[in-house]
Amino acid sequence: MVMELLTSHASVRKYKDVQLSAEEVRDLIHAGQHAASSHFVQAYSVIHVTDTAKREKLAELSKNKRQFLSAGAILIFCADYARLEKAAAIHGKTINYSFAENLLVGSIDVALFAQNVAIAAESKGYGICYIGGVRNAPEEISELLGLPKGVAPMFAMSIGVPDEANEVKPRLPVEAIIHENSYDASKYDDLLPAYDQTMHDYYLHRGSNQKDTAWSQQMAEFLHEPKRTYMREFLKKRGFEMK
Ligand SMILES: Cc1cc2nc3c(=O)[nH]c(=O)nc-3n(C[C@H](O)[C@H](O)[C@H](O)COP(=O)(O)O)c2cc1C
Predict the structure, then answer these.
(1) Are 80 and 43 in contact (CB under 8 A)?
(2) Fewer CB in 10 Å around end: N or C, the chain?
(3) Is any atom of ligand 1 closer than 6 Å to the C-beta of 170?
(4) Residue 130: CB within 6 Å of ligand 1?
């Protein structure tokens, strides 16, 4: 059952006009919180954006209009060391989260938490989509949401009743991902062209947004140019100095 749910995931970007209740969102967050957490730091917070004006502003800033405006719930997932500062202050201590390791811990924690929320939502028949687009305007979004220092928005998630059904995207074959005992790059000479063929067929024939491309081509184009080059400075300002 869980295996079927996991392998049937497809992002949803268009929703029916049904809002999730505060209680439903709470239940999803509660399930999400049971994800494992590095050293049990629980270094994450989530902003449930219910205010229409804020949603409209987020839609504009993140350049993901349709999702932000049509979703049944919008959640902004943040790495959070501000609460840990408070916890340490109870004991008269300050904390140090100025190393790259701390940013990794916060990023991993928030991603595991979010993926649990995603699975919980999908198990209830909702669709979801992650929205990295919040990193298009991280400063403005942090200000809009009143995020204190030590808190950084990592991604958003739209959740709602699907108004579209996308095909499951074929993943890389398991053999491409799994290595036995040591990393074996030689297999990619055969595996990547074969996967490109699979993805080429998928892109050409899928229900919407068909295109004549392949996965390696998409990756080459996407990763050739630097992306969101302001993120390092932004994170440093938030207290994530990455020493
Ligand atoms: C961290 C993260 C950020 C993402 N950001 C966006 C986004 O800004 N806009 C969007 O439409 N999809 C976004 N996606 C969804 C991916 O495009 C999608 O998961 C991927 O193409 C695989 O498709 P699937 O989820 O339908 O299987 C994001 C996914 C992740 C994990």
Answers:
(1) yes
(2) N
(3) no
(4) yes
Strand partners for 75: 48, 157
- Please give the pLDDT value at position 64: 87
Edge-to-edge strand list for the sheet holding 73-80: 44-48, 73-80, 151-160, 127-131
Domain with CATH 3.40.109.10 in the chain: 2-166+226-237
Give distance in angstroms: CA of 189 to centre of ligand 1: 27
Ligand 1 atom with the shortest distance to the CA of 63: 8
pTM beyond 0.90: the answer is yes
pLDDT digits (tens, 9 = 90+) for 112-146: 999 999 999 999 999 999 999 999 999 999 999 99
Cα(238)–Cα(232) distance, rounded to whole angstroms? 10
111 lines ligand 1 (CB under 6 A): no
Measuring CA to CA, which residue among 82, 157, 147 is closest to residue 122? Answer: 157
Correct CATH for 2-166+226-237 of 3.40.50.261, 3.40.47.10, 3.40.50.2300, 3.40.109.10: 3.40.109.10
Whether 85 and 150 have beta carbons less than 8 Å apart is answered as yes
Torsion, Cα of 140, 223, 11, 153 (10° steps):
-30
Per-residue pLDDT averaged across 21-28, rounded? 98
Q: In sequence order, what DSSP letters do the residues of 44-111 get, joined into one string?
A: EEEEE---HHHHHHHHHHHT-HHHHHH-SEEEEEEEE-HHHHHHHHTTT------SHHHHHHHHHHHH
Strand pairing class (127-131; 44-48): unpaired
Nearest to 44 by CA among 91, 13, 76: 76
Q: Is the CB of 156 under 6 A from ligand 1?
A: no
